[in-house]
UniProtKB/TrEMBL annotation:
Residues 87-114 form a coiled coil. Residues 553-570 have a biased composition (Basic and acidic residues). Keywords: ATP-binding, Coiled coil, Nucleotide-binding, Repeat. This is ATPase component of ABC transporter with duplicated ATPase domains. Residues 551-570 are annotated as: Disordered. It comes from Lactococcus termiticola. It comes from the Bacteria. InterPro entries: AAA+_ATPase, ABC_tran_Xtn, ABC_transporter-like_ATP-bd, ABC_transporter-like_CS, ABCF_ATPase, P-loop_NTPase. GO terms for molecular function: ATP binding; ATP hydrolysis activity; nucleic acid binding. The gene is uup_5. Residues 4-257, 318-537 form the ABC transporter domain.
Length: 627
């Protein structure tokens, strides 16, 4: 079933066309990625789909009563409540049902029509169960823990949290609300690798539809199965995740080029025949026929050469020694130790990725190695002929008042301006772009400028702190290729697992207990960690089974208890009836003291009733012990 459909959507700003003629549909339970260069209009299109903005042309249609949630990029949750109270507010209806169930349980003690009350209770209890009433608190706990909010943090006021924490909570609340269509713009920002893995698993099992914009290709591969490409103002659909989309796009482009070249050869052949034969009497008719054929031919458009890509090349001036970096028994942190002991033995040609949870000290380790902050304990030693080039994720090494041209030229005054412009051009700064001040640049432009500065240094050891931040997917892929071809050594921090897989030869995991080296890429690292994950999954499955068993057992116990209570009431009523009969028989005996035959009959009835009462009292005693 189609949940939402776009028909000939366009967005223009004056005479500038961002995109036009875009049509698409989002199916029930679809997993769709929206990809394209920075500036292609992805976020704008998401806002139009979510109803935040209106299209310049076209329309969005959706099914009646569609529940839709939209998480804009870096949008934080605003609330005066605590973390837990805000998450609990999602289940307000279930809380009301639960309160009613507790009230009904209290009413059972004095109910005049217990059977009707029990029937109503059973019906409401089943509705409560099917709506997730017995699981919602566990679900809140699962989601908050998944987003790295430990239980001792749940009473913290949301207003006091950081921007990144508020963004994570906004996504957490949306997941708990379970809309039919969830629209996410860069949901992986501010998430460490462990949280990303949890979110991927959660979204894979999500019952609604997903529309996602993300630069995290690994995340898209894991979560999506359909890709919409927004390029040059047009949209193309591919059935597959990101990696499959890349393969299919390359195949499509190759096929289109082949068909175009084939037609161009045919056109050239026909035109040549017409030109040579149109004036000859013997061949004029055939030439005219060929001309008509050309006129009727539906000309294929020349395939797009694609949007411009940066050209990055890292070429060291000199070769380092075999030993590049040694870190021994190191402790990193500021006032307190974040991680220890850390050991690194990096050799020429290695590319080591540093991974670990947010706040464990990965960037702190990088800053300690380059000497920006001291180690709490331990040392870092560089090998012979090692020259270090450093990429700072904070982009603090750029001067805001410089022009783009001066930012490079100030460090290389002996080079002619034309050479500096050529380098900047290869990083997509051309024409008037080089006269922009650094402070006016976007995050992606600043990242490319930093990489240009790094390439100009010609160092043989690159230390990179989150180099893919702010880069679009195309620029990330260009950077990956440049680093793969780099003949020097690399030490880098990144949460981009796709990037790690392509670039890293080893993975160094940092934890509070120190460092551990894994001799492979990110997938190898996760395989080695899989045992722990399987144990965790097994424990979760066991907990769920126990919860289900507990629920079934609880229902059986409640049912049995109600049966016993009804039986107790019946026996008590029977006992009281027998007592009344005995009292009546004794009164009859008193009225006929001389009728010995009648007295014998009455006494026999009294004895029978008394014997029955003894049995009833014994049964009641056993029932009371059971209750």
């Amino acid at each position: 079933m189609i949940l939402l459909q776009g028909n000939n959507i366009a967005r223009t700003f004056g005479a500038d066309v961002l995109f036009e003629g875009i049509s698409f549909n989002l199916q029930e339970k679809s997993r769709t990625a929206l990809v394209g260069r920075n500036g292609a209009g992805k976020s704008t299109l998401l806002k139009i789909i979510a109803g935040v903005e209106e299209p310049s042309a076209g329309e969005i249609s959706k099914v009646k009563d569609l529940s839709l949630n939209y998480l804009a990029q870096d949008t934080g949750l605003s609330s005066d409540l605590s973390i837990y109270a805000e998450m609990l507010s999602v289940f307000e209806d279930l809380q009301k049902q639960e309160k009613r169930l507790r009230q009904m349980e209290l009413e059972m003690a004095d109910a005049t029509d217990l059977d009707k009350l029990m029937a109503d209770y059973d019906r409401l209890s089943e509705d409560f169960r099917q709506a997730g009433g017995f699981n919602y608190e566990a679900e809140i706990k699962n989601v908050l823990n998944g987003f790295s909010f430990p239980e001792n943090f749940w009473q913290q006021k949301i207003a006091s949290l950081s921007g990144g924490q508020k963004t994570r909570l906004a996504l957490a609340k949306m997941l708990l609300e379970k809309p039919q269509l969830l629209i996410l713009d860069e949901p992986t920002n501010h998430l460490d690798i462990e949280t990303l893995a949890w979110l991927e698993n959660y979204l894979k099992n999500y019952q609604g539809s997903l529309l996602i914009v993300s630069h995290d290709r690994y995340f898209l591969d894991k979560v999506t199965n359909e890709t919409l490409e927004l390029s040059r103002g047009k949209m193309t659909r591919y059935a597959g995740n990101y990696s499959q989309y890349m393969e299919m796009r390359a195949e499509r482009e190759a096929s289109e080029l082949k068909e175009y070249e084939k037609q161009q050869k045919e056109i050239a052949k026909l035109e040549d025949f017409v030109q040579k034969n149109i004036t000859r009497a013997s061949t004029t008719k055939r030439a005219q026929s060929r001309r008509k054929q050309l006129e009727k031919m539906e000309r294929l458009e020349a395939p797009s050469k694609g949007e411009g890509s940066a050209h990055i090349l890292f070429e060291p001036e000199k070769r380092s020694g075999d030993i590049v970096l040694t870190v021994e028994e190191a402790s990193v942190g500021y006032d307190t130790v974040l991680a220890e002991p850390i050991h690194i033995d990096l050799r020429r040609g290695q590319a080591i990725a540093i991974v670990g949870p947010n706040g464990i000290g990965k960037s702190t380790l990088i800053k300690s190695i380059i000497g920006d902050i001291p180690f709490i304990k331990g040392t870092a030693k560089l090998g012979a002929n090692v020259s270090v080039g450093y990429y700072d994720q904070d982009q603090s090494r750029l001067t805001a008042n410089n022009t783009v041209l001066d930012e490079l030229w100030n460090d290389h005054r002996l080079l002619p301006e034309v050479e500096i412009r050529t380098v900047l051009g290869s990083f997509l700064f051309s024409g008037e772009d080089v006269k922009k001040t650094v402070g006016m640049l976007s995050g992606g432009e600043k990242a490319r400028l930093l990489l240009a500065k790094l390439a100009m240094e010609h160092d043989n050891f690159l230390i990179l702190d989150e180099p893919t931040n702010h880069l679009d997917i195309d620029s990330r892929e260009v950077l990956e290729s440049a680093l793969i071809d780099f003949p020097g050594s690399i030490l880098f921090v990144s949460h981009d697992r796709y990037f790690i897989n392509r670039v890293a030869t080893e993975v160094l995991e940092i934890s509070k207990n120190g460092s551990q080296l894994y001799l492979g890429d990110y997938d190898y690292y996760t395989e080695k960690k899989e045992g722990e994950v399987q144990e965790e999954v097994a424990s979760l499955v066991t907990a769920k089974e126990i919860a289900n068993q507990d629920y079934a057992q609880q229902k059986d116990e409640q049912r049995n208890r109600r049966k016993l209570e009804r039986k107790e009431a019946d026996l008590t009523e029977k006992l009281e009836d027998h007592e009344r009969q005995i009292q009546s028989l004794m009164e009859a005996m008193a009225e006929n003291p001389e009728d010995f035959v009648r007295l014998g009959e009455l006494q026999l009835e009294i004895d029978q009733l008394t014997a029955e009462n003894d049995e009833i009292e014994l049964e009641l005693l056993e029932l009371m012990e059971s209750l």
